[in-house]
Write a structure and sequence with these properties.
alpha+beta
């Protein structure tokens, strides 16, 4: 069976490491699907869910708040400042952070404040979407 090694790493820890049959994640230009022997690639990734189909047929979900992707024919590395396992996502916390970002957006006094709040809002919206996708798959 063809497999590909997958490592998902946050600034704090190794979130996932193992063999997989398929990986899907939100690339900068759209959704990326990666199979074993994929052409080498380096890309930025957007906030969203990384879906890993393991060799035993199960799926692992990891939320990433953006980052970098490196693909080699036998290895995928996802680097993100923030990465959270699907089962560790907290919907109440994510909704509260989204509301705080919406409030910050309304109260932005400068372009920099507006940009920061917009970015945080996008990340929180992606996290909530990833959480819902994870829960629907269970």
């Amino acid at each position: 069976m063809n497999t590909i090694r997958v490592d998902v790493v946050s600034a704090e820890e190794l979130i996932f490491s193992g063999e997989a049959k398929f990986v899907a994640l939100p690339g900068e230009s759209g959704e990326l699907g990666i199979l074993p022997k994929h052409t080498p690639l380096i890309s930025r990734i957007k906030p969203g869910a990384v879906r890993i189909e393991t060799v035993d047929g199960k799926e692992e979900f990891v939320f990433v708040a953006g980052g970098l992707l490196e693909v080699q024919p036998d290895h995928v590395t996802v680097l993100s400042d923030t990465a959270v396992r699907g089962q560790d996502l907290d919907e109440q916390k994510a909704n509260a952070a989204k509301q705080a970002a919406e409030e910050a957006l309304k109260n932005a006094k400068s372009e920099l404040d507006f940009a920061r709040a917009s970015s945080e809002l996008a990340v929180m919206a992606a996290q909530i979407a990833a959480l819902r996708k994870y829960r629907d798959k269970k």
